UniProtKB/TrEMBL annotation:
This is Methyltransferase. One of its GO terms (biological process) is methylation. InterPro entries: DNA_methylase_N6_adenine_CS, N5-glutamine_MTase, SAM-dependent_MTases_sf, Small_mtfrase_dom. The lineage of its organism: Bacteria, Bacillati, Actinomycetota, Actinomycetes, Kitasatosporales. One of its GO terms (molecular function) is methyltransferase activity. Residues 165-315 form the Methyltransferase small domain. SUPFAM superfamilies: S-adenosyl-L-methionine-dependent methyltransferases. Keywords: Methyltransferase, Transferase. The keyword Ribosomal protein does not apply. It comes from the Bacteria.
Length: 377
């Protein structure tokens, strides 16, 4: 494990370094406390110097906000095309994360945050990082995310289709955008003469929190196999399936995308934006070269039972951003020996749709999320 080193009252100290964003350990670290001015902190951070905070916790949060305001003074440049604007937006976000990520805090033994007015972060850190292993330096922005994730995990996210809450873990995509869940809850399940669903077996690929597997079980599918490549997601899905009482009908497994065998129904909600994630935390949104989408389409026909369907839940945001075309998507469907037999659409309901200050507002305002019903030819 990499380490960081700094001098504190003339004594050289060190601690393990951890970054979920894969940020390398800083080579230069200086002490910072309540006496440091925001302009000084911002200048040092822009120059690449990390600031190890030793003062009041709430003052550290205020310093982050002050540094953020200084970053905002330089507006994000609009590109000549939607794709250019997207890449400039990502570049600006990366710069913001890099500058704000230079403010560090030290987690002492047992994840104790020894700062004035600091919250108890031990449980949140244990959930995110696992058992403690000595003092560890982390980005303050990351620690705030860990604390926020713990709060989401504790109270859960209401899912109307289940009339229950799903509890996301740190690093697992949360179903706060409920439109894709509603599509799976409303898509037709063909019924046979005895009124049972013809789709008695299903695969949920990239299950995340397990919410779609739970929705299928709630709708009467007899047996669902839910997969994911992420150990965090597998643990999260198993916990949610247990909470919801579906352990007798849902098996959670990984790390392969497809489980063995065939199913009547195969559901996949891959990352919607074909761009390289900058950290493991972004893999629920960004997927370089649409690799999960391509693998799903390429393997679907071989994993469907006769008469079965694949449900692809996908936003067209990438199309509005100029990162993928509709013809490219349909060509991949055709190349996989599949055909489209139906499609359901819905509009996103999140607040960014109305945020005209968002550099990507035009694309977000036009976005449509679809459930594509696919069968083998």
């Amino acid at each position: 494990m990499p380490a960081v080193h700094w001098a504190q009252t003339g004594v050289l100290r060190s601690a393990n370094w951890h970054s979920e964003n894969s940020t390398p350990a800083p080579s230069r670290v200086v002490d910072a406390d309540d006496r440091m001015k925001a302009d000084t902190a911002y200048r040092l951070a822009c120059e690449g110097t990390a600031l190890l905070w030793r003062g009041d916790f709430h003052n550290a949060r205020q310093l982050l906000q002050a540094m953020s305001r200084r970053i905002n003074r330089k507006p994000v440049t609009q590109g000549d095309s939607p794709a250019d604007s997207f890449h400039l937006h990502r570049k600006a976000r990366s710069h913001r994360a890099r500058v704000l990520g230079r403010l560090l805090v030290l987690l002492e033994d047992g994840y104790c945050l020894d700062l004035r007015r600091a919250p108890d972060v031990r449980q949140a850190c244990t959930e995110a990082y696992g058992p403690p292993s000595g003092p560890m330096a982390v980005l303050l922005t990351e620690l705030l995310g860990v604390v926020g994730a713990h709060q989401w995990r504790t109270r859960g996210v209401e899912v109307a289709a289940l009339d229950a809450r799903v509890h996301p873990h740190y690093g697992v995509f949360s179903p706060v955008r409920g439109e894709y869940v509603d599509l799976v809850a409303q898509a037709p399940l063909r019924a046979s003469a005895d009124r049972r669903a013809d789709y008695r077996t299903a695969f949920d690929l990239g299950t995340g929190t397990g919410v779609l597997a739970a929705v299928l079980a709630h709708r009467g599918v007899d047996h669902i196999v839910a997969t994911d490549i992420s150990p965090r997601a597998l643990a999260c899905a198993r916990e949610n399936i247990r909470r919801l009482g579906f352990t007798d009908r849902v098996d959670v497994t990984g790390p392969d995308l497809f489980p063995d065998g065939r199913a009547d129904l195969v559901v996949c909600n891959p990352p919607w934006v074909p761009a390289r994630p900058t950290s493991a935390l972004e893999t629920g949104v960004y997927d370089a070269d649409s690799s999960m989408l391509r693998d799903f389409l390429a393997g679907l026909a071989a994993h469907l039972r006769p008469g079965g369907e694949g449900w692809l839940i996908l936003s067209d945001l990438a199309e509005h951003l100029g990162l993928r075309t509709r013809s490219e998507l349909l060509a991949r469907v055709e190349a996989a020996n599949l055909r489209v037999v139906g499609k359901m659409n819905t509009r996103p309901r999140h607040s960014r749709v109305l945020d005209t200050a968002d550099p990507l507002h035009a694309a977000r305002a036009a976005e449509v999320t679809s459930l594509w019903r696919l069968t083998a030819k």
